[in-house]
Write a structure and sequence with these properties.
This protein is an alpha/beta fold. Helix content is about 40%, strand content about 25%. The longest helix has 15 residues, at about 105-120.
Amino acid sequence: MRILLIEDDTVLGAAVRDQIAGDGQSVDWFTRLDAGRDAMAGTSYDLVLLDLMLPDGRGIGFLKAMRARGDVTPVIIMTALDQVSDRIEGLNAGADDYLVKPFDLAELSARIGSVARRYTGNPNPILTHGPLEVDLAARNIRRGGTTVQLTAREWALFEAFLARPGQLLSKAQLEEKLYAFDAEVESNTIEVHVSRLRKKLGAGVIRTERGMGYRLGPP
């Protein structure tokens, strides 16, 4: 997933960024609403992590503006505002989840996964694809009863295909899901990850559409 993080606390922001990157996702981190707004104008994000008290305004206004223009990108609020009235205001403004600081980073990862599954229409964390049994919550795959170990990047790539079964994904789209703005991406990175996934999960798990991209293979 490509995640937008808007958080002005540099210590927390760095910790959240590192947690997301460790999960194999890409994250673009900004400390101001105007920078986050500009980023959304030029990039398609899968999820937004939004603080409510930013140097240039309140996150609630940012969220309301998103929903008013029809932007349905899922949003998780992260804030120190812990009153019931604050939660109600955030959820009524269109937030998908509300996380009160301080929070456990592992819980954040779980909530990101839960919200993402709801938006892809598959809230059940357990699914099967051919001989593969996939636990999205535990980030675990079993093939023929044997656990398959994937790296964080391999998992994120495979999850991108699972979220869009049958849909063609270009190399550029996949790179965007896995890498942030400032990351250097080698020209054959996606090809290498796809090759490794095929070796671990089966040759037909990902199909190549020559000159166009890749798609999840049939079950």
